[in-house]
Amino acid sequence: MQKFFAQYPFENEAIAAGVSGGADSLALVLRLKDMGRQVTALTVDHGLRKESRAEAEYVADLMAQYGIEHHIISWLGQKPEADVEAAAREARYALLGEWCMAHGIRLLAVGHHRRDQAETFLLRLQRGSGVYGLSCMAPVTPRGKILILRPQLDESPEELKDYLRRRKIRWIEDPSNQCQDFQRARMRRFLPMLEREAGISEERLAETAKVLARTRNYLDATVTDRIDNQVRQWAENVFSFTAHRAAEWPEEIAFGIWGELLRRAGGRNYAPEAAEIVRLAQEAKRPLFKGCTLGGCEVLVAQKRLWIVPESRQGQVLSKTEWQKCLHFAPQYAKAGLPYKVRRALYNQFMQVANGKKN
Question: In 10 A of CB 48, how many CB atoms?
C-alpha cells in the first residue's frame, strides 16, 4: 500500500473505504488508518441474506473500537432474481458513489487484491476479451466524478489475512465465495489446479494483466489525443466527426474512440459491449450506413459527418421558439445547419443547464 500512495499521493484528501467485513476490506480500512489517512468506512447492506445486517453492525462496532467513522447504507427496493452478483456489485458502487458525492469525498477505496485480479483475468479470457478486458482492474479508475482506488492490487489475500491475525481481528467469510452458483467462485477454485498442473500462478496472471495495462494506457492516450483533435464536441454529450476521418482510424483506435464517445454521450459509467462497438465501427464505414441506436445514444449520418447524441424518446417536435431559446445560450450554432436530432439534443442539454441555474 505504501508503494501505491507513493505513485498516487492524493495528499491530504479524505478517503471513503468500502468495507464489507471480509478480510480484504477490513485490512484496507485499518491500514489506511495506520498510515494516518483521513478515512471513513462505508458498509452496504444488500439485504440479500438474513445475516447481512448483523454483519454490517459487526463492522460498525469494530470501526468504533478503532475510532473510524462508519456508516451503513442499505440497498432498498426490489432485488433482482437473475444475475444477482452483477446487480449487487453495480448497486454497491452506485450507493457508495452517491454517499461520497453527497459528502464531498472524491476518493473511494476498495479492497481488491492480487487474486481478485487473477480471477478477473481468467473470467475475461473465458469471454474472449481483448487488451482492454485482459488488462483487468486499474489501480485508479474514474467512475463519474468519483475515483475508485485499489491500493492492494499487488498484495495476496493471505498477506491481508496475516495482517488481521497479528491484530487478532476476526473477519467475515462471505458464503457466496464458496457458492458454485457464482462464476467467480468457480474460477477461484480452479486457480490452485491451474498453478499445480500448468505452473500458471495468480502472481503470473496478475503480472500479465499489468503488462497489458501498459498497452491499454498507450491506447487510451492515443484515443484521447484523436478525440481532442479530430472530434468536435458541440455540447457535453453531442459529438461529430467526418466519415472520412473515421475510416482512417486503425481498428483498435476506432474501437476506443467509438466506445468512449458512446459512454460520454450516453452518460454512463461504461461503454457498450465490445462486440457491439466493433460491429458499429465496421458498419459506420459502409457507404449505405444510415445510423443506429446503441448504449443510450443515437448515431446519425448527415452533412458527410457521423453524429453521436443521447437517445431521445420525446414525441413532441422541437419548435422554432424552443430552438431560439437554445440559441440564446449558443448563438454560434444559428447558421450551422445542424440536423434536427442534434438540435433536439442541444436544446435538451442547454435547458437542463438553464433549469439547474434557476434551481
Answer: 15
Domain presence at residue 216: no
Please give the C-alpha separations between residue 2 and each of 5, 15, 147, 347, in angstroms, as whole numbers. 5, 15, 18, 48
Low-confidence ranges of the chain (pLDDT < 50): 180, 359
Is 123 inside a domain boundary? yes
345, 266 Cβ separation under 8 angstroms: no
Contact 342, 238 (CB under 8 A): yes
Q: Residue 233's beta-bridge partner residues?
A: 239
Percent of the chain at pLDDT > 70 equals: 95
Domain count, the chain: 2
Cα–Cα distance between 266 and 199 in angstroms, integer? Answer: 43
Q: State the pLDDT at residue 236.
A: 87
C-alpha span between 333 and 146 (Å, rounded): 33
pLDDT in tens, 1-16: 889 999 998 988 999 9
pLDDT of residue 177: 57
What residues have CB less than 8 Å from 291, skipping those under 6 apart?
298, 299, 300, 301
Q: Which domain holds residue 110?
A: 2-208
Q: Three-class SS of residue 141?
A: strand
